[in-house]
Amino acid sequence: MSQSTTDPRLLRAPPKRKLRLSWADERVRGIVWQVVVVGIVGVIVWWLWSNTVHNLEVRRIATGFGFLEREAGLPIAESLIEYSPTDTYLRALTVGLLNTLKVAVVGILLATILGTLIGIARLSRNWLLSKLAALYVEVIRDLPLLLQLLFWYAILQGLPGPRQALNPVEGVFLSNRGLKLPWIEWQDAHSFALLAFILGAVATWLYRRQALAKQMRDGQPRRIWPVALGAMVALPVAVWAAMGAPWTVDWPALRGFNFRGGLTMSPEYFALLLGLVLYTAGFIAEIVRAGILAVPQGQWEAAQALGLHPGQVLRQIVLPQALRVIVPPMTSQYLNITKNSSLAVAIGYQDIVSIANTTLNQTGQAIEGIAIIMLVYLTISLSISLFMNWYNAKIALVER
Amino acid sequence: MSDLTLTTAAATSPEAAPRTPPASQIGLRGWLRANLFSSWINTAVTLVLAYLIIRWTIGFIEWGVINAIWSVPENQTQACRDLRGVGACWAVITEKHRFILFGTYPYEEHWRPALVCLLFVGLYVVSAMRRFWRWELALVWVATLAVIGVLMWGGVLGLSYVPQERWGGLPITLILATFGLAFAFPLAILVALGRRSKLPAIKALCVLYVELIRGVPLISLLFMASVMFPLFLPEGMNIDKLLRAQIAIILFAGAYLAEVVRGGLQALPKGQYEAADALGLGYWQKTGFIILPQALRLVIPPLVNTFIGFFKDTSLVLIIGIFDLLTAGKTAIIEPAWQGFGIEVYLTVGAIYFVFCFAMSKYSQDLEAELNRHRRR
């Protein structure tokens, strides 16, 4: 970056020195050190590897991933795809992976919302609200997550049975069988409406980009909300209405000893989600608070002095600057939620770790089982990191 | 001179005498107005929150104190069961507190793990005091850990021998956390230095280690320790479960601490490195005398935060069946008579974890304020 100011004579490469075979030569020392360290690590790895191979032979365990094709015979309580115990291990592991993703994605979403609210509450001018938020953050962060999960699970298990289920709102039932919510009966019309919404969102985004580019040229602000309303609300509603506007709500109702219909959240899933969201929200709240505090007071004042209204100040001045501070630590919190979802195994939610663990107990394929767990998490971690790095680069401060 | 007379005149004139602000702006009333009732929306928030806090507090006191049962005779828990949801059954704690704290350690020898816990706490307190931050502290650590080993195992000095399978509860949590830290920290420093090294092979090894460990959950490492380590070792050689979990925790903590230490190394101005080079110091002299003392000082607060996280994470050994504090709590309510009293037990165990973590977090905040004092004007 300072090349233009450097004396061109200095740009010439330094004269090549001959490699002297002496301890005094830095490069020789470097090479020797590397050979020694790599050698030691190599010997240790080789030793562990040969032990493993020998032990596997003694115990007659065949290595390889052939077992994935065998019948699993393990029952899975909740699954996003069709599954029965006669399916293969591969299918069982896929179910586990989807269950992990289900809790991670929903958890990330809810924890971000709750954490942001608590972070803002902590900065509130209302003394009671800010102290309460501070108390929440302090307590939740000082208790082990596993303890919290066991605690929520114990509370859910202590709830009355379906016949005496708590019914706080019409159609919502909370019992020791989990949480029951009303849900609309999904039909083709809903799928098409959802598709229309996604297309509308993409169209709005493209329009917004163009409008901003035009604004950069002529300085005239353009309204985006009419287009957004048309493409993201009117279009899906129109599609839905054109297909007959089906609208049947599936209310959960007590039949015999359990509930029928509606959307079910098992106690395991509910406890895991609750624990993960409440725990991570405590950390996210601190990140959001630090991000907002990192924007100097002068920025608010300058924006107000320019005549921007409060919404604009927040959206166009403060948030872009706060996000720069918020995004990197937020990435690691998202990674943490995903990794912490593996604690599911302690309360019996069947995620990838739980199913891989059962698999390795049933088949004795310990190395393959652990390798699958690690590979899955490394892939998820890497994808989240790459996405957040891309987003971070996008919002980073562009200097000259 | 005329200025002076003017000022005196102004000061003596009754209109200019300092007046107290209106009563609504100062004192308790002013504070309440500014912080709780500054606008109608703020007033509404305050009233709703106050109502909820009072209701929940009263509810909790009714459940936890007024309606609670503190002890029952001879495992007769029917009285507790009748009160489910109305009153807490602290009798489970009265009955099981020794088991939760010390696991299956022989009952009449419980003073030994109790003393061990006190020794650990003493060690933490001494290590936290800045006036003891000298190299002799390492000797204190070695000596204390040796005494702890003698107390736990026994077999010498007239103490009866207690095999490791019978250890449990709080001492296991403290052992996992303390030994984990004592070994992970030096490892972390080496790895952090390696990652900043100019030697490509060493740097690659360190990056691989850190990223691999940080990319997977601790549970997968603990599973690895419990099912794969036995395969790694030559036939006939076996290390026990606690030690295997301890190794997994050290490897895990090492990677996270290494990243914190690396942050400190990067935050140090380049001039420090160059000045050390200019003095003709070798790599280890430069690192030991110039770089590390400054870099570590910079990262003490995040280090303490990592320690807290790591103290909490030792509870994960529950999943591979090691008898730490949380496992002891969970096991205490397996007995049919005491089943279903999880909330009381987890609240108690949580309180113990909270005391340790809260103390560390307060300490880290105070230390941060103290270390940053020179930066503030």
Automatic annotation (TrEMBL), chain A:
Tell me the protein family, please: Belongs to the binding-protein-dependent transport system permease family. HisMQ subfamily.
Where does the protein end up?
A: Cell inner membrane; Cell membrane
Q: Name one Pfam family in it.
A: BPD_transp_1
- Write out the entry's keywords from A to Z: Amino-acid transport, Cell membrane, Membrane, Transmembrane, Transmembrane helix, Transport
Q: Which Gene3D superfamilies match?
A: MetI-like
Q: Which GO terms describe its cellular component?
A: ATP-binding cassette (ABC) transporter complex
Indicate whether Cell membrane appears among the record's keywords. yes
Transmembrane feature ranges: 30-49, 103-121, 133-155, 189-207, 227-249, 269-288, 370-391
What PANTHER family does the record point to? Answer: AMINO-ACID ABC TRANSPORTER PERMEASE PROTEIN YHDX-RELATED, MEMBRANE COMPONENT OF AMINO ACID ABC TRANSPORTER
Matching PROSITE patterns: ABC_TM1 (PS50928)
What is the name attached to this protein's record? Amino acid ABC transporter permease
Please give the organism.
Answer: Roseicella aerolata
Where mainly found?
A: membrane
Top-rank lineage group of the source organism: Bacteria
Residue span(s) of domain ABC transmembrane type-1: 97-388
Q: Name one GO molecular function term.
A: transmembrane transporter activity
Q: How does it sit in the membrane?
A: Multi-pass membrane protein
Q: Which GO terms describe its biological process?
A: amino acid transport
TrEMBL record, chain B:
Bias class Low complexity marks the residues at: 7-18
- Which is a GO BP term held by this UniProt record? amino acid transport
Q: Which Gene3D superfamilies match?
A: MetI-like (1.10.3720.10)
| ABC transmembrane type-1 domain span | 170-364
Q: What SUPFAM superfamilies does this protein map onto? A: MetI-like
Q: Where in the cell is it found?
A: Cell inner membrane; Cell membrane
Q: Where are the transmembrane segments?
A: 34-54, 110-126, 138-162, 168-193, 205-233, 245-265, 340-359
Which InterPro entries would you find in this protein's record?
AA_ABC_transptr_permease_3TM (IPR010065), ArtM/GltK/GlnP/TcyL/YhdX-like (IPR043429), MetI-like (IPR000515), MetI-like_sf (IPR035906)
Per UniProt, the keywords (alphabetical) are: Cell membrane, Membrane, Transmembrane, Transmembrane helix, Transport
Membrane topology value = Multi-pass membrane protein
Give the GO cellular component terms, alphabetically. ATP-binding cassette (ABC) transporter complex
Question: Which family, according to UniProt?
Answer: Belongs to the binding-protein-dependent transport system permease family. HisMQ subfamily.
Name listed for the protein in its UniProt record: Amino acid ABC transporter permease
Organism per entry: Roseicella aerolata
